[in-house]
Fold this sequence. Notes:
Layout (H helix, E strand, L loop, with lengths): L1 E4 L11 E6 L4 E6 L3 E6 L4 E7 L6 E6 L14 E6 L3 E6 L4 E6 L5 E6 L6 E5 L4 E4 L5 E6 L8 E3 L5 E6 L2 E6 L7 E4 L5 E6 L6 E5 L3 E5 L5 E6 L7 E4 L5 E14 L4 E17 L5 E6 L4 E7 L2 E4 L2 E5 L4 E6 L4 E6 L4 E7 L2 E6 L2 E6 L2 E9 L5 E6 L4 E5 L2 E5 L5 E3 L15 E3 L3 E5 L6 E6 L16 E5 L4 E6 L9 E6 L4 E5 L8 E4 L4 E4 L6 E4 L3 E5 L14 E5 L8 E6 L2 E5 L6 E5 L3 H11 L3 H11 L2 H13 L3 H10 L3 H22 L1
Antiparallel strand pairs: 1-26, 2-3, 3-4, 4-5, 6-7, 7-8, 8-9, 10-11, 11-12, 12-13, 14-15, 15-16, 16-17, 18-19, 19-20, 20-21, 22-23, 23-24, 24-25, 25-26, 27-28, 28-29, 29-30, 31-32, 32-33, 33-34, 35-36, 36-37, 37-38, 39-40, 40-41, 41-42, 43-44, 44-45, 45-46, 47-48, 48-49, 49-50, 51-52, 52-53
Helix pairs in contact: 1-2, 1-3, 3-4, 4-5
Amino acid sequence: MRLKVSSLKNAKHVGAVICVSWNNTEDVFSCGDDHKLLKWNLATNECMIITILPDDLFPTGLHLLSKINSTGKKPNSESILISSTDGKFHIVNLNGRIEKSITAHQGACLVALWSPNADGILTAGEDGCVKVWSCNGLLRSTVVESDVPCYVAVWSPDSNSILYTKRHQLIIHPLQAKSKIIKWWAHDAVILSAGWNASNNFIISGDEDGYIKVWDTFQQLMFSTKEFVQPCTSISWSPHGDLFVAGSYNKLSLHSDDGWPNSILDLPVGSIYDVAWSPDGTQLAAACADGHVVFAHIIERTYNWKNFTCTQTGRKVIAIKDITTDESDQLDYPDCVVQIALGFEHLVVATVKQCFIHKLTSWNTPVTFEHKDGAVNMILLAHRCMCIVERGRLSVYSYTGRLLASPQFGSRLEARGRTYISLGPDTLACIDQTNPTLVHIYDLPTATYSISRGTTDSTSSKLKHYIAVCSIALSQTGPINERQIALIDRRRDLMVASVKDPKQKLLVLSRAVLSIVWSTESELLIGLKKDNIVCWAYQKNNTRPELTTTVVSIPSSNIGHNPSIQSIENGVASIFRGKGTTVMHVSLGIVHVEMVLKYIASNMWSEALQLCRTLKDTKLWGCLAELALEKNQLDIAEEAFKEVHQYAEVFRIQHIKNIRNSNSKISND
């Protein structure tokens, strides 16, 4: 994955460009020291002057009110917010006319931002004050008063808190009364830039020494690197939250959400004062000191599934290849590609306007349908259906393009990361954004008909935990009445529950688990810990803690800090290492365990028993014992428990068999 910079044309600004902001996927506004407000159209490669600002107005920031805010509703008006060195912020319409000018600070007004819910304005200035205003420019509150200039202030994703800087400190200030203020010493130099991720709640910051750091909201340092020799002057999260970009003197770098750089560009443009992402997350614009506005887009994203590999080679071009047959093809699309998902025999591509569903057996005949919002944040795939998360809505489709369900989860769908939503063949689960201790579970209809379901539908249920849940995963195989959900809470405890269990009892499997994933071919759950990878072949019984034969643990100390497990195929786990997006493949040695699980799922008990007798592996016998006892195969369970030396279970099974034999004799007499 890397950035490809569009060809640099003659600078349209005279002097430094201070700020840029996107209006939609094609229009970019820029403003600089020459007082010009320019509009760039990427579709036509044209640039036009919207207006020339007054001579005494020197901009320090530019922010557009998006046409569709985070609630999915259109705001009443489309406006530009400009902060300036005279302590004012200005509300400007798209034609360049200044509607209002409000004096906000003593000294320069360094920050002016619309809130994510389009309900307010945040400003910060050289006087050390941080203030919140109404959309009409009426002062609501002075959140912070300080004698130290505030260079950076940003809204939280839910608009309920503010992140601002005070020299070396990062401070989270909730807007609710009597809420605790969180602050910590983040850098040794003055912090010049910061951002807050809406998907995973991570915070990024850059300082005068060129350091970039990634934090969570509990002050834990996730990543740190001295990326630049010069100060880090700008930084910004992508709308999807999986990438961020940072700018410095003559350098622009693209990073994954864990901080590791994917691409570093050397640009002879001077300092990069501001960077902004397009709403679809595929392009970015950078304001440069030499008068240029640099545009770049992301290419060479690679996706793999079994013997297929897919690479985005251009904004509208994807190359797909079958490595076993060496067949390849190039897929061209009419619009920019926004999201790609590969798996379950399908390739799903979302562009700005349409969604394309390709079968891997026939790449050139896709199923196509329109999507409404034009901002697809996420695509999830399962055996029989797929889920598309757009701004303000969530939809489940069959692979024939038929709408199956459209559950209503409330607002801020774009703020949900992949760990917050899980899709199974017949079930959809989502963590409640307002109450993270609650998990909503929806039964999905079959792919033979379409229906739109809401939260009041009787097919929805709720799973309640007593502390916040931070990650969920649904099992991918088996009937719906045996569907399981695994979750990790804030304490990193791994728990499992049956979706259809009316009591919904949570069973604790392990502690200190970082990441989880279910196998797509069997009921095998894989968890990632700090120093090892753990596989649970049977998750439904924790009453016998001494029986550990259904658990496989593989030491793995070279997985870095804060890694995540992505998938498991043929006994090989794909792990994104904590330091970077490099994928590490680890053989787990569980191929035969999965074979036993597949035999049992297909009711092939004799084959499963023969495999265990042949290999004489304790792990296989343990899996067979537990599953045979659950499925009431007492003869097989008795033999399996003998092999793992669980004689108490053997005696119990023999006792049950004697009772059954006695009852059968009585009934025959």
